[in-house]
Known about the structure:
Helix 1 (10-22) crosses helix 6 (156-170), helix 1 (10-22) runs antiparallel to helix 8 and helix 4 (86-114) packs parallel to helix 6 (156-170). With 200 residues, the chain is of the alpha+beta class. The mean pLDDT is 95. It starts with a strand and ends with a helix. It is built from 8 helices and 4 strands, in the order βαβαββαααααα. Helix content is 57%, strand content 8%.
Amino acid sequence: xxxxxxxxxxxxxxxxxxxxxxxxxxxxxxxxxxxxxxxxxxxxxxxxxxxxxxxxxxxxxxxxxxxxxxxxxxxxxxxxxxxxxxxxxxxxxxxxxxxxxxxxxxxxxxxxxxxxxxxxxxxxxxxxxxxxxxxxxxxxxxxxxxxxxxxxxxxxxxxxxxxxxxxxxxxxxxxxxxxxxxxxxxxxxxxxxxxxxxxx
Length: 200
């Protein structure tokens, strides 16, 4: 099994985290996004979308991080990352879709806006993005309620949120108390510690 990805990519980190949780051996193939490695002819033959990550497992070539997570959780059920009941699995799918479709885009756009020279930054756009992120954090906090995990125990629903919630925290965005405790709880997991400190 090979995983093509970039160590700073949140979506690559999601898959690496899943592989670590499942204790699966694999080969990491670095795709250097900083130098355009995703646009190389060699990589485009693996993933014509030119994005990371991509998982290759024998004859299976799989794009899209959430699809990869579901595949791994199904292939290695010993990790119990997918619940057994249909309703709980559906709730897991909801977070697998919500994170890349709703939670992450404003975070990425805010990071891009703040990376510009101050004179070129759009103050209104920054304010709107911060408001959207705060709203999304409120949604996540309400879903948690007083529970430790989104479905009552650690599943793909939590795994998919961890790298991007950590990135938001690293950027200096203040997390509400419920999510501060949630992130602290997730961040001590050995699989995340190995993933977060990987620089290959």
